[in-house]
Amino acid sequence: MQFPHVDPIPIPAPVWLMKTLSLLTLTLHFFAVNILIGSLVAVIVFSVRGQGKDKGSSGAALVVSRRLPIVMTYVINLGIPPLLFAQVLYGRALYTSTILIAVQWISVVFLVMACYWLLYRISAKAIEGKPVHWYASGALVCAALVGHIYATTMTLMLKPEVWQEMYAKSATGLQRAPHDPTTEPRLLFVLIGGFLIGGFWLTLHSRLKTIEPETAETLKKLGSTFAVIGAVGELGAGIWAYSVHPAGVLAALSTPYYMVSKGIFVVGFALALLVALYQLLQKKTGALLSTIGGLGGFLGLAGAVMVRDGIRDVTLQQKGLDVWNRQEASNWFVIGLFLIVFVLGLVAIGWLLAVMKSARPITEQVNS
Ligand code: HEM
């Protein structure tokens, strides 16, 4: 028996419900991670250029930097729900993999804290008109390391055949997972998305009424270029990340559900690519255009997340763990309460956005 015994407590909600919520929140998590990564790369570019006293770049660095701590709250808060669902559904595989590389796994907490701290420094320094590229590079490295640890863990949980040997070698949690050809492509897929979603994030902000025209122009130019690179990159990295998985696993992903998921992936990123190309070639952008491009990116990510989930389920099933085969004792009162609070939360966010939109804007400029 490669997997630990099943948890004695039945799961408190149906598998399909947990999976749906997990897929939705993980797509949102990737979306937020993409904004973070894209913003950090952009801030580095703007800050380096701004040193040559390019006013547009200094202004653009400020606009993007100021929003970084807020973006990070979304990265974290949208990462927690899929973590909880993954633990409940795949605990027998996930706990084992996290324990085997425990030191790396726990270091995520410190890396996220370091990243967060750097984001606040970037925001404060940008307001003072100081260069921020070193801070942004540091934050980018921290974020990429967090992503690498997640990709390593989520890959190791699919390989029960190496657990015994790893544990026999060392029980300290200090070791690294054996190399797996799928880890890097999976990580790359999420990081490259930074150019796509981050690109639309920049073009969206180029429409702000509170910024100087040269700042708007700088945001629009780099954003349009980023979005094209990102859309092509996502299609390429997604197909690569898919194709490196074993043929036996991929063969099982030809059911109608996964064909539709793959279709969503292609249609979403193709739509994003079209919008990105239009923006770049026509040198035009708008809130609606950026939103459609962002929605295309979101769809593409959602399709990829569905296929990624299938890869996990099929791999584990072929090795003896069937996620659908769990004893369930749904507590519908608690589930209902959760759904009500969930909807109320969405309404509250909508209300906050409406208040923000109707508030009197303040000019965003560098204090010098
Ligand atoms: C800078 C911060 C972060 C980055 C760059 C990042 C990046 C990533 C990447 C690359 C993956 C995909 C791994 C794979 O497919 O193999 C991932 C998955 C995941 N991340 Fe994040 N992440 C960050 C922060 C967080 C935080 C703070 C949490 C939780 C509190 C979190 C929760 C998750 C979960 C639960 C998954 C996998 C879910 C599943 O497989 O069902 N992430 N993240």
Please outline the helices and strands.
Elements: H1 15-51, H2 55-66, H3 68-77, H4 80-100, H5 102-127, H6 133-156, H7 160-169, H8 183-205, H9 213-243, H10 247-251, H11 256-282, H12 287-318, H13 332-358
Helix pairs in contact: 1-2, 1-3, 1-4, 1-6, 1-8, 1-12, 2-5, 2-9, 4-5, 4-7, 5-6, 6-8, 8-9, 8-12, 9-11, 11-12
The structure holds protoporphyrin IX containing FE.
Q: Are any ligands bound, and if so which? A: protoporphyrin IX containing FE
What is the overall number of helices? Answer: 13
Model regions low in confidence, pLDDT < 50 over at least 5 residues: none
What do the pLDDT scores average to? 95
Question: How big a fraction of the residues is strand?
Answer: under 5%
Helix and strand content put the structural class at mainly alpha
The fold-level CATH name is Formate dehydrogenase/DMSO reductase fold
The appropriate CATH architecture is Up-down Bundle
Largest beta sheet, briefly? none
Quaternary structure type: single chain
What would you call the shape? globular
General description of the model:
This protein has helices at 15-51, 55-66, 68-77, 80-100, 102-127, 133-156, 160-169, 183-205, 213-243, 247-251, 256-282, 287-318, 332-358. The protein has a single domain (15-324), classed as Formate dehydrogenase/DMSO reductase fold (Up-down Bundle), CATH 1.20.1630. The longest helix is centred in the N-terminal third of the chain and has 37 residues, at 15-51. Helix content is 77%, strand content 0%. Helix 5 runs antiparallel to helix 6 (133-156), helix 6 packs across helix 8 (183-205) and helix 8 packs antiparallel against helix 12. It is globular. 42% of the residues are buried. The termini are far apart. It has 368 residues and is mostly helical. It is built from 13 helices and no strands. Bound molecules: protoporphyrin IX containing FE (HEM).
